[in-house]
Amino acid sequence: MTSPADKEIHKPSNFLRQIIEHDLAKGTYAGRRWGGSPGDAAHHAAGQPDPAKVRLRFPPEPNGYLHVGHAKSICLNFGLARDYAGVCHLRFDDTNPEKEDSEYVDAIKDAVQWLGFDWHNGAETNLYQASDYFDFMYRAAEYLIESGNAYVDEQSAEEMRIHRGDFVKPGVNSPFRSRTVAENIARFREMRDGKLADGAAVLRAKIDMASPNINMRDPAIYRIRRAHHHNTGDKWCIYPMYTYAHPIEDALEQITHSICTLEFEDQRPFYDWLLDKLAEGGLIASPHPRQYEFARLNLTYVLTSKRKLAQLVNEQRVSGWDDPRMPTIVGLRRRGYTPEAIHLFAERIGVTKSDSWIDYSTLEGALRDTLDPIAPRAMAVLDPVKLVLTNWDEVMGAGKLDDCSAPVHPHHPEQGKREFKIGKEVWIESTDYEETPPKGFFRLFPGNKVRLKYGHVIECTGATKDANGNVTEVLATLIPDTKSGTPGSDAVKVKGVITWVGVYDAVQAEVRLYDRLFSEAHPEADGKDFLENLNPASLSVVTAYVEPSLAKVEAGQRFQFERHGYFVTDLKDHAANKVVFNRVTGMKDSWAK
Ligand code: ATP
Ligand code: MG
């Protein structure tokens, strides 16, 4: 899926591409077999040489709607798989029983598909859920115990915390660390069988309490938690810890390159320790997956945390997960973002190994650059005031309407023309008239001439006002023989061109003018509550007039309203009898300093 703008961009090299290219050149994974589905070493050994050169995965936890940060990760993982003749699995990381919901599972699948990616590879579905691996995870835990690499610890949580030490102080061995294998197995089975209370014991990996990396100081790998799981029900009262589960999920799925965000960097030694042990024991196929970390996306004016986005929804600060101001994929989509714009954005920001902030204008820029070449043009008046052409009846004829036309797209004449009519009365933007013009104002003021775009040149003669001094109608005279596209039409020179919509054929529309949800680039800077930085002007709704070519458009259609920017018919509320547009973004960055 490439857009015209995309094609011009040379794919920037990133360190992950280099790693994959290096592995492909060296044949690191060339001998891998694939059993047709996830499984242990024996399962894959009985399979075929893996038809996929590389396997990646996108592993969301189904506890909320995906946001623009996840979009980066989706584009990265699925994009690398596509570019290197591999596959990318969609894996629901549902090992935590408390938080998951199947509503989110469907939304996540939709989001990945909308971005243009597919987890299928021929007959392989490659849609997995981590909880399907609980049996193997349990078996692997018993193997670790049997091989002297894990033990059941019954210290209190507080004792464990104290004994873990800190950055300067090494940890202290637990008194339970020297239990025999038989005792550990018996106790672990009691944990599994519900003989111990929640929190009474944990299974820990036996590594090194003095390791400089605190994550290697005998991390917990199983805990007791009586909780109903959406997939496994009440089968288990012990659940694997994320740091234990994740490497195993990757290994069973024969993932080659396991890409995660930087905060997992310190977990990498444990990832390798665990998979090395399980490979030694012949439980998982070799070579095992490797973890690589990249910097998460931080975007100014945006929150990228499912939990905080959920708070905005739950407290009704926005209308829902798909509110067009939300950075969720459903929100961006309703706002009018295209998959192509998000791909281009992901390409432009690239992949790095150090955290930084991406400016929001980069996202909007990618959107403009992808919409500009494809969006049909239209005229719309968002803040209408009536303009009356007082000499219309004499020069054009009473009640007469005159045909005007404009290209659907200025660079694509083959797309044809839009037709509309001009008459005695047209709608113009109220800001296009000034009684006493400021310096450099070239639009309507008494005595000035402007062109009605695609129409005639007119000369302003003044305005009528109500009792409060507000302009009710702007008045002008039409200058004959100046209609755009007719011979001699440019004999009268003007400095200003204004957009307009005919009163007789205009279509009334509700236009939702969306802007950034937060007024601060860093909504949480200096420990502030992000709610304090909500932009009070992030939405205003106006009744506008749009040209007649927009009378019958379907929901989700994008246009460039000349002068105003990009607009989309709302996916939820737009209907044949109620035209509703969302502003996607302005013509240029109005926030630039
Ligand atoms: P959140 O804090 O919003 O819940 P998460 O990282 O816990 O985010 P997961 O569902 O666990 O959400 O993430 C799925 C994948 O998306 C992970 O591989 C994670 O690295 C990636 N991801 C999440 N947030 C970002 C981000 N801001 N930038 C890049 N990748 C991200
Ligand atoms: Mg998470």
Key attributes of the depicted protein:
Glutamyl-tRNA Synthetase, domain 3; 4 domains; Ribosomal Protein L25, Chain P; binds adenosine-5'-triphosphate; seven-stranded mixed β-sheet; Rossmann fold; disordered N terminus; 593 residues; 25% helix; alpha/beta; binds magnesium ion; 29 strands
Proportion of strand residues: 15-25%
**Largest β-sheet summary:** 7 strands, mixed
Report the CATH topology name of the largest domain.
Rossmann fold
Count up the domains: 4
CATH superfamily of the largest domain: HUPs
Estimate the mean pLDDT confidence.
95
Low-confidence runs (pLDDT<50, min 5 residues)?
1-10
Computed CA radius of gyration, to the nearest angstrom: 31 Å
Count of distinct strands: 29
Bound molecule types = adenosine-5'-triphosphate, magnesium ion
Give an overview of the whole structure.
Helix 4 packs across helix 13, helix 9 (242-252) crosses helix 10 and helix 13 crosses helix 14 (360-371). Strand 27 and strand 28 form a beta hairpin. The protein has 4 domains: 4-134 and 242-296, 3-Layer(aba) Sandwich (Rossmann fold), CATH 3.40.50.620; 146-240, Glutamyl-tRNA Synthetase, domain 3 (Alpha-Beta Complex), CATH 3.90.800; 306-375 and 509-586, Ribosomal Protein L25, Chain P (Beta Barrel), CATH 2.40.240.10; 382-499, Beta Barrel (Ribosomal Protein L25, Chain P). The chain is α/β, with parallel strands linked by helices and 593 residues long. Residues 1-10 have low confidence and may be disordered. It is elongated, with a radius of gyration of 31 Å. The protein contains 15 helices and 29 strands. The two termini are 34 Å apart. The chain has a 7-stranded mixed β-sheet with strand order 14-27-28-29-25-26-15. A 7-stranded mixed β-sheet has the order 23-20-21-22-16-19-24, with no helix packed on it. Strands 6-7-8-9 form a 4-stranded antiparallel β-sheet. Adenosine-5'-triphosphate binds at residues 59-61, 69-70, 72-73, 260-261, 296-297, 304-306.
